[in-house]
Amino acid sequence: MEKILIILLSFSLLGGISCSQPVQKGVGPVVVISTDLGDIKVKLYNETPLHRDNFLKLAGEGYYDGVLFHRVINHFMIQTGDPDSKGAAPGIQLGRGGPDYTVPAEFVPGLYHKKGALAAARQGDNTNPLKASSGSQFYIVQGKTWRSGELDTIEMRINGNMRQGILRTVFSPFQEELNKYRQENNEAAFNQKVTELQVKADSLYNATPKFTYTQEQRQTYMTLGGYPMLDGNYTVFGEVLEGLEVLDKIAAVKTDQFDRPVQDVKLKISVLK
Q: Which CATH number does the domain 22-145+223-271 belong to among 2.40.100.10, 3.30.1340.10, 3.40.50.300, 3.60.15.10?
């Protein structure tokens, strides 16, 4: 039972990602995101079939034609896919629209937030603990370059979050029992139970594979760039093949207080294969 729990924890708490394991990215469908500032050619990953198929379905229906890049943050990412942005008046905050469904998270080892990564937006953890993706909104990572020490810190932060998640998972079923000991001022029983649960949590954490970047991924983040803090939290389901310069152009546009471009940047998507 504990072995099963360890596996589940490693996938649910780290999003199923362990960057130390390489991924073989097959030849997936290719789409062109045509924008007011140029074209971006993107390959979708076959390793994330739910996101791939949903994206292709919406693109084939013309769902994205005329939507805006509604959230643009230089050195971070450009976000789009909100159908409410079509024809939206200037100055209106956007980003809440989409179909009435979400897409289950597909965290795949080795798919990470390098510059040019295509990833799905989503609601926050408080309302979306399973990290399910928006039905239509997505972003393309621009990011920046990182130093090796910064990547070390990010690895430690992700592993620390995993440890906290394991503690919550282990302690949650026993909260009523612990509260009862508190109410009875039964300090000995309370401390004994906490120690027992802590030992179990430590055992699970020690048995769970830790998050580490491969040398290739480190080199990519240090040279090409990206945004590693997003790894294990948002589904990456494609990457830019051509048009990184267009990504940079869009990321550099002037924006308002809502991070929306002052001058609208519209797009349409064509499926090549």
A: 2.40.100.10
